[in-house]
Design brief:
The protein is of the alpha/beta class and about 210 residues long. It has a single domain, classed as 3-Layer(aba) Sandwich (Rossmann fold).
Length: about 210
């Protein structure tokens, strides 16, 4: 099962990816993970990526695609894969398709979790965590017994990237990058749109039904 998972921050991609990993026995592959692994392994593409990262430059698409191609040929991808965070642009989607063609593989689906942005902001800005024990809370959906305090007695904190201004910017970037991809995969008849605002189990079942129908 060869899949791409699309969705804005907080849409539940990690939760659904975990289910797909267990259901199909395939790895979840993120661009960041691939880059770090390639750099650590010292592959030719990893060396090029390291040079770019060291100079503060963006890693060129051709290097990222090379790393993706190397990764998809690893033994754990024999049954398939879930690409998370890649492709981000239509140019990358074209390059990925060329890579898959060379490997003799195709996409079984591009899962797009559709969510309401205001609800997402509420979901993300309400998250709190304990810096001592790591326990997580939500001020509305899973509040602590004592306001702003973990059960271990430590004061709760809000991550910088869970502040509204930051989230709105991240959603804007996602929207600008991803909308062209939605159209791209619609035209390729690969797109599976799922309502990500439903209960976790319902979203999971909808994804499974769509994959089986495809």
């Amino acid at each position: 099962m060869n899949l791409i998972l699309l969705g804005p921050p907080g849409a539940g991609k990690g939760t659904q990816a975990q289910y797909l990993i267990e259901r199909y026995g395939i790895p979840q592959i993120s661009t960041g993970d691939m880059l770090r692994a390639a750099v650590k392994a010292g592959t030719p593409m990893g060396v090029k990526a390291k040079e770019c990262m060291a100079s503060g430059a963006l890693v060129p698409d051709e290097v990222v695609i090379g790393i993706v191609k190397d990764r998809l040929q690893e033994p754990d991808c024999g049954k398939g894969f879930i690409l998370d965070g890649f492709p981000r642009t239509v140019a990358q989607a074209d390059a990925l398709q060329g890579c898959l063609d060379q490997l003799g593989r195709g996409l079984d689906g591009v899962i797009a979790l559709q969510v309401d942005e205001d609800a997402l902001v509420e979901r993300l800005t309400g998250r709190r965590s304990c810096p001592a024990c790591g326990l997580g809370y939500h001020i509305k959906f899973d509040p602590p017994t004592v306001a702003d305090t973990c059960r271990c007695g430590t004061g709760l904190v809000q991550r910088d990237d869970d502040r509204e201004e930051t989230i709105r910017k991240r959603l804007q970037v996602y929207r600008e990058q991803t909308m062209p991809l939605i159209e791209y995969y619609q035209q390729a008849e690969s797109l599976i749109v799922v309502d990500g605002m439903l209960e976790i189990e319902t979203v999971r079942d909808d994804i499974q039904a769509a994959l089986q129908a495809g």
